[in-house]
Specification:
Layout (H helix, E strand, L loop, with lengths): L19 E7 L2 E2 L28 E19 L4 E21 L4 E19 L4 E4 L13 E11 L11
Parallel strand pairs: 1-3, 2-3, 3-4, 4-5, 5-6, 5-7
Length: 168
């Protein structure tokens, strides 16, 4: 996760120099380790901290309040959180991500978000492969706002026939 998370539960988030910038995640296998459909070993929902201080953060890779983000060549394995959760983000690239039995959304974007590219995704998620949510449930998103100029291309989702199991 990035350092300067910003929640929008009390109103619009700032879009000035208070954000983190120029973040890059390149390679690796990332997980919260879902040991079974109902079990886990770790941070089940991908909360930002043990206290879940920013409501709605649910990512194995979590980025909220970020400018210029690159996530490339990663595998998200057996997790119950969103694979890559992006919120209040501008100028982002998410590419070459493989989902290995991820139990939630693959890439989940909450608004405001702009000038992003999401491409070359593959694998299995048990929920949305890519979710673009400008306005979500109040307790389900760290921020809310418009999403524009986001390209999604070359996504190859596999289907296992297994149901989504949400234990929360």
């Amino acid at each position: 996760r990035n350092r300067k998370l910003a929640g929008g539960q009390d109103g619009p988030v700032r879009t000035d120099d208070q954000s983190n910038a120029n973040l890059r995640i390149e390679g690796g296998v990332w997980t919260t380790l879902a040991t079974s459909d109902r079990g886990n070993n770790g941070n089940n929902r991908g909360f930002s901290t043990k206290q879940a201080d920013v409501v709605g953060c649910n990512g194995v890779l979590l980025f909220c309040n970020v400018r210029r983000l690159h996530v490339r060549n990663v595998t998200i394995r057996q997790s119950k959180a969103y694979g890559v959760h992006v919120s209040n983000c501008e100028e982002f690239l998410i590419e070459n991500v493989r989902f290995d039995d991820n139990h939630r959304d693959g890439v989940h974007v909450n608004g405001p978000a702009a000038y992003g590219i999401i491409r070359k995704l593959s694998g299995v998620t048990f929920d949305d492969f890519v979710a673009l949510n400008a306005w979500d449930w109040l307790n389900a998103a760290p921020t809310f706002g418009p999403i524009h100029h986001v390209l999604v291309e070359d996504c190859r989702a596999a289907h296992t026939g297994r149901p989504v199991v949400d234990t929360n």
